[in-house]
Amino acid sequence: MTLDSNRTATMADVARLAGVSVPTVSRVLSGAARVKPDKEARVNAAIAELGFRPSAAARNLASGRSDVIAVIAGNTSQYGYAEVIRGVEEGARSEGYTVVIAVVESSDDTRMDSALATALGQSIAGVVVLKFDPPGVAALRQIPSGVPVVAISGVREAGIAQAVLDEARAAEELTDYLLALGHSTVHHVRIPPSRREDGRTTGWRRALTKAGAVVPPTQDATWDPSSGRAIGRELAESTNVTAVFCGNDEIAMGVIRGLADGGLRVPHDVSVVGFDNHPLAEMWSPSITTVDQDFADLGRRGFEILLGVIRDDSTPRYSSERPRLIIRESAAAPSSRRRAG
Amino acid sequence: MTLDSNRTATMADVARLAGVSVPTVSRVLSGAARVKPDKEARVNAAIAELGFRPSAAARNLASGRSDVIAVIAGNTSQYGYAEVIRGVEEGARSEGYTVVIAVVESSDDTRMDSALATALGQSIAGVVVLKFDPPGVAALRQIPSGVPVVAISGVREAGIAQAVLDEARAAEELTDYLLALGHSTVHHVRIPPSRREDGRTTGWRRALTKAGAVVPPTQDATWDPSSGRAIGRELAESTNVTAVFCGNDEIAMGVIRGLADGGLRVPHDVSVVGFDNHPLAEMWSPSITTVDQDFADLGRRGFEILLGVIRDDSTPRYSSERPRLIIRESAAAPSSRRRAG
DNA sequence: GTGAAAGCGCTAACAC
DNA sequence: GTGTTAGCGCTTTCAC
Prior knowledge:
Two copies of one chain form a homodimer. By secondary structure, chain A is of the alpha/beta class. Among the domains of chain A are: 63-147, Response regulator (Rossmann fold), CATH 3.40.50; 167-293, Response regulator (Rossmann fold), CATH 3.40.50. Chain A contains 13 helices and twelve strands. Chain A has helices at 11-18, 22-30, 37-50, 56-63, 79-94, 114-120, 134-142, 167-180, 199-211, 225-237, 249-261, 295-311, 336-340, and strands spanning 68-73, 98-103, 126-130, 149-153, 162-165, 187-190, 219-220, 243-246, 271-273, 290-292, 318-321, 324-326. A six-stranded parallel β-sheet of chain A has the order 2-1-3-4-5-11, with helices on both faces. Chain A has a four-stranded parallel β-sheet with strand order 7-6-8-9. A two-stranded antiparallel ribbon of chain A has the order 10-12. In chain A, helix 5 packs across helix 12 (295-311) and helix 8 runs parallel beside helix 9. At the A-B interface, helix 4, helix 5, strand 2, helix 6 and helix 10 of A face helix 4, helix 5, strand 2, helix 6 and helix 10 of B.
């Protein structure tokens, strides 16, 4: 027996039906103060009968608080991004927060991306920025001060709360491994962004420099694995390539396919390694040597940190995890074939 | 020269600085009514100076409208889901809407999922439900009536606005193709959900029945490709399997790997086909015969339809697209080896 | 065109 | 414990 069944019930309707005042209903809902059991029961009954759901807008406006957090990302469907977002969402959900996603495209520091602006208008409790690419970096700069924010990325940076995966360290280890196998140097296929150097590239360069190996020019792939295939074909032409470190596993798969197109076998003729430990990396033939990145956990840690910032408690504002090397079949000692080529 | 730099500027601050009334500022922002050019300029200047951003909460409360749409999904990081979400987000963004994501886990029809409840509390303009699995189906049933909603799925259903990809039709075509190659029947590895029959399974069964072929029992995989690998190993044991239709490409990759573990080559010994045209399907060796599903476009169409429902205009409330067959290397005519097995 | 006044649905003091 | 009184920051009549 709802009243005006077209309108959704308000707290005043509930109060009337339960024979109490509006604040009492609010108290029952929030648990902020104790309410006599019988009233509480009547209120709950009224809520159920009317199908009442509180208006988040009104709540935010009155309290100044919000249970929405925004995730700002330059990308949502790539494996790593999707997993990070999933981790943030899981953390948020378990604490009763809702997640809004804003996909930013512009790398322009001076003009705020419209998606960002819209999302930021939503009375938000805090922001998680996926700072893996230029749009993410630009977005981070544009978050108004005063808004709780945490950055998630692969490289540490001062002055901001963040959860990171130490990609440089892992990339260095991976390159070291290839060098230890006997390769005289390692080629590198980068994933976007191409603007600044990412942790993966930095670690690769560091390992080569440390070993006194030549640092070959890098190649840039897009997110599309077929760009890796094209690069693989090119790589197959040059006779001095014996080991290739790809910015992620999907590109590695493309590169391996491109190498195969050029008649080269992995790891017999060329070793290829990836990054991320994509679920398919193990299914590939040959299975791909890579580095395991727990992206979902990264997202979860990012949310925890954000929660600390929001609550202003003493939770640490920084969390770093080192990805671990996963040795599989796609890398081996160099064969003589290539050196003879 | 902001006032209280700790507080974010309100419309009243802007009005004061510009020497106009609050409603005038509102008019400038919304364009709802014409404002004298000089006042408009002063208002815009004040907005810029104060860095004013309107409060969405207050706007919603006062107007009853909202520029947030909710996407309800049982999953966010699987390729297909992630792409659909990306499509919805793109459509939403281009129309100035923000997207909130609610991940539902429960398949219980009687109790509303808490994530759903939180998201629905957000004064939402409409809801897009990804109805590909039991949690999605359950969520759809729990959306309060009166809320604009569109379902996105692989199977048509009456009485609701929806965007679909005709998966049954495509699966039938794919199975027909395998049969035409000379296979006496086709085995099927299903993706979740296992509860009800999905379009892919329906189409497969239809094709077999139509051809008078035996309908072998199905096997159930999880979203993890390694579950496909385990099934592939089992399949390698039985000598009467010559063709396998997998619920998606990732499972197909796992199955191919499992078959290889069992010493069987694809397509020489067994033909394997997938579904979705995952970006890696083409990179795989052998490249995978599959069906192309334009998920991002599906998401975009879903949003368009939702927009029509929200605006209550005459946009069609249903949109269907048929995925198209992509013939590659992983399926071929059966060899004598297996039949002799 | 523009301002004054009212009110969206809630929470936050404050009395009692 | 519980009700009363004020707003939160906007949009919306409605006069002028």
